[in-house]
């Protein structure tokens, strides 16, 4: 829950918000204002609507969604939105707090993961039944979410509905072509030669599309560094289980990664988590392309190591 101080600020600004609504209605009555909570959703929505709607991030770029605490300004932004697109299964929990505080029964909320088959979360401190919220790091899951968002927006804005749905189909084609191109590069490779550890469970959706299972997750929970004993247990497991590659996050420092590399000889590869940097329309396409090529490189490396060991 938001603090009473933030609530008080919210109520004191109702008049200001009313004025914002009035000007917004006059200036942009023909365009939806679509709120988003995370970087990939900016990319999804921008791909769908292009210039036919306004996209408004709930929080400016540069924040860490794992530890962000809602601010009074977030409530002001929320009041400008006609609809809000959320991950809704974790990773944007801060937005759920803002929604609860705003008490806007008229605000349409699109839960992008409502039709996505969810994987179980991994990590020593993850509770039973917890789901992996990183669906935006998968290809098939991204396609499903873009369809869900486009269909919901088409209902809210029927004049542009066919345009939105056509753009969603084009996105799906691009993503499938990307995956097909990566698979073509792996025709002669043994994918099972790749034995994987990850710093956290962000990459499982992408890896499963290529038939790869994660053997161990190092962080007990996302963004939580392992204790000394947990780190030693991980090192021992990597040494004795044949793990040959460790995937870690491109934009976040992990001090323990160098230790693991030094102690085990495991090869390091970086994946983009897609939740850092500026909000851009092509972020998902570009960074998913980088991730798939990184995965191809890792699989070829694992095959080379396997051949040398024979």
What can you see in these coordinates?
- This protein folds into two domains: 4-180, Rossmann fold, CATH 3.40.50; 187-309, Rossmann fold (3-Layer(aba) Sandwich), CATH 3.40.50.
- Helices cover 49% and strands 11% of the residues.
- The termini are far apart.
- Residues 13-28 have low confidence and may be disordered.
- The protein is an alpha/beta fold and 310 residues long.
- It has a four-stranded parallel beta sheet, with helices on one face.
- α6 packs antiparallel against α7 (161-184) and α7 (161-184) runs parallel beside α11 (283-309).
- The radius of gyration is 21 Å and the shape is globular.
- This is Zinc ABC transporter substrate-binding protein.
- One of its GO terms (molecular function) is metal ion binding.
- Belongs to the bacterial solute-binding protein 9 family.
- Keywords: Signal, Transport.
Present the secondary structure layout:
Blueprint: H1 4-12, H2 14-28, E1 32-36, H3 39-49, E2 53-57, H4 72-79, E3 83-86, H5 93-102, E4 108-111, H6 139-156, H7 161-184, E5 196-198, H8 204-209, E6 214-217, H9 228-241, E7 245-249, H10 255-264, E8 267-271, H11 283-309
Parallel strand pairs: 1-2, 1-3, 3-4, 5-6, 5-7, 7-8
Helix pairs in contact: 3-6, 4-5, 6-7, 7-11, 9-10
């Amino acid at each position: 829950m938001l603090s009473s101080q933030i609530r008080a600020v919210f109520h004191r600004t109702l008049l200001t918000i009313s004025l914002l609504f009035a000007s917004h209605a006059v200036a942009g009555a023909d365009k939806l204002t679509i709120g988003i909570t995370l970087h990939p959703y900016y990319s999804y929505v921008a791909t769908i609507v292009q210039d036919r709607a306004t996209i408004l991030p709930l929080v400016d770029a540069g924040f860490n969604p794992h530890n962000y605490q809602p601010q009074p300004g977030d409530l002001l932004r929320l009041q400008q939105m006609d609809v809000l697109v959320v991950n809704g299964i974790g990773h944007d929990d801060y937005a759920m707090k803002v929604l609860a505080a705003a008490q806007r029964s008229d605000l349409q909320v699109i839960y992008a993961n409502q039709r996505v088959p969810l994987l179980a979360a991994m990590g020593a401190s993850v509770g039973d039944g917890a789901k992996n919220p990183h669906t935006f790091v998968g290809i098939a899951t991204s396609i499903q979410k873009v369809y869900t968002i486009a269909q919901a927006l088409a209902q809210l804005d029927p004049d542009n509905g066919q345009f939105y749905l056509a753009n969603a189909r084009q996105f799906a084609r691009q993503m499938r072509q990307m995956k097909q191109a990566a698979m073509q590069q792996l025709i002669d490779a043994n994918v099972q030669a790749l034995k994987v550890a990850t710093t956290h469970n962000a990459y499982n959706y992408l890896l499963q599309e290529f038939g790869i299972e994660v053997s161990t997750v190092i962080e007990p929970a996302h963004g939580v560094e392992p204790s000394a004993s947990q780190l030693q247990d991980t090192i021992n497991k990597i040494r004795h289980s044949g793990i040959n590659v460790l995937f870690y996050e491109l934009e976040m420092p992990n001090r323990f990664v160098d230790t693991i590399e030094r102690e085990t000889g495991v090869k390091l590869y970086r994946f983009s988590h897609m939740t850092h940097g500026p909000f851009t329309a092509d972020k998902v396409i570009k960074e998913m392309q980088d991730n798939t090529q990184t995965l191809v490189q890792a699989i070829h490396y694992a095959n080379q190591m396997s051949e040398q060991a024979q």
